[in-house]
Amino acid sequence: MTARETTQRTIDAGGRKITVLKDLGVPTRDGVVLAADAYTEDLDAPRPALVALSPYGKELQALALTMPPQRRPSPMWDGCIEAGDIARVVAEGYVHVIGDLRGSGYSEGEHIGNYNAGGVPLGQDAYDFIEWVAAQPWCDGNVGMIGISYFGSMQVLAAAERPPSLKAIFVSGGHYDFYETTYHGGVMWLMPRAAREGRGGDSGWAFTDGVRSRMLETYSAEEIEVRVAERLADPDVQAWPNLFHTLHYPTNHEAWFDIVMNDVDGEWYEERNPVNLAENIDIPVWLQIDQGRGWTLDGTIECFDRIPAAHKKLTIGPYPPMQSRPLIEEHDKMFRWYDKWLKGIDNGVDDEPAVSVFVEGTREYVVGDAFPPKPVEHRELFLRPRRSLSFEPETMGPEFAAPDGFFQAPLTVTDRVEILSWSTAAFEEPATLMGTGAFHLFASIDQDDTNWIMRMWDEGPGGQRQLLTTAYLKASMRELDPEASTVGSPVHPLTRKVPVTPGAIEEYVLRVYPMAATILTGHRIVVELSCNEPMVDAHNSLLPPDAFHVPVGRPVQHTIYRDAEHPSRLVLPFTTDEV
């Protein structure tokens, strides 16, 4: 992409005059020029800058000036308009600088794979971009960053490089563990396809001719042919048209092809994993995430725990999980943070508790110094006959406590998703859950693999339900890391597949993603188990159309054991003042 000529103009945004510098050329250390737009109130009055970087295109982000914010399920909601409220940024006394990553938008260079720019770490480009912004006459030398999701991940990558002018970051809804961004417990999630290709409510990357597959760059044609054949042998892939198409035509889906080809964790994902890089961050950091998508919550908490910075905060907000587009939420917190660390205003934000968690049910915030902010004790809820959940274990053996089960036909031949459920009795007193959990499932299948998908709901007396948390595990990736796992917090390496022996009873231990909810008097905990997700329900309707997991492509009979010899159970974190 050839660099454009820089232009300057003034626009009116709600009665406020904003000066726009279009198509600024930002040089990087290897000579590639990145494109950027800068928005400010007065070019002659230097002020702090907030930088936003992504491959989604700076022109798309400019819609924040003209499009009223949309919430799901609005058909105008676009998951890629994530750089923040331009007019408000300027009104608060900051310069808003929105840039295109190399190989995207109007920037030069090549973008290879995911978070890899032509062999150059994206954090390195972010370092050069930030230092260039800090040196401009309209910036006072103090820089922060802004934006959700991909923009949020870029903040962590940038801060890990320690550019001198980056004084603080505020990350909302970031994605951290790269493998967990697409595979949850080894089960493929389709949302990254939408983010990259532009489907189902996302405009996608602003592709240029400079976006290429890292797999195709790394391996010979012969090696790619062998690896593609191996992936096509997976029945889940065979039965899903988009995956079948991607593997046959990789140059049409470069970045998505790389993800599809790498279905286990390892060096491919760990090389520039923001969670690992978080240990290099030494500036003030505020991480914010809403409940409803457990893997992002899990990754946010892990990132928070790994950051050694002296000043760090974590805020976990309420359900539902999807914020407006253009993004406008969390700006109040963000400006308080940046007023302190970029403008030097003593507003007391750094004296407030480090961790703040919204508790569903009571709908109140609980604060503390770590997550969970209250002490917890893990208690067991056992799967029992008649689809009940009980704090008391089953006393009968398998000959009397007959197993439950379900047969799931492939979605190529049915539109019915089979779901088993178990529920507690109505709670007589409120009980608060806060933290991670585990689902110990004793089961057999008649194939060598399946998905295990658990969803846990709070059900009120009138039948109204709200999702509390989820758990996912590919049966062939059931291996546990015994050193990293603890009671109520199982950890799976997810680095290899071990086929299941058909008919063998296995103990699967699913990681139950973090939650924060009070089960009110008269409410029940309901647990659902399936191998596929319903395409539409009360929760999924809040998500973009592609935000579900690849279904099982083979017919599978699932048998669930929950007797004295096979104590299938949930291990949940109850706060100790209510146990």
Automatic annotation (TrEMBL):
GO terms for molecular function: hydrolase activity. Pfam families: Peptidase_S15, PepX_C. Keywords: Hydrolase. Residues 335-571 form the Xaa-Pro dipeptidyl-peptidase C-terminal domain. SUPFAM superfamilies: alpha/beta-Hydrolases, Galactose-binding domain-like. It comes from the Bacteria. NCBIfam families: CocE_NonD (TIGR00976). This is CocE/NonD family hydrolase. It comes from Nocardioides panacihumi.
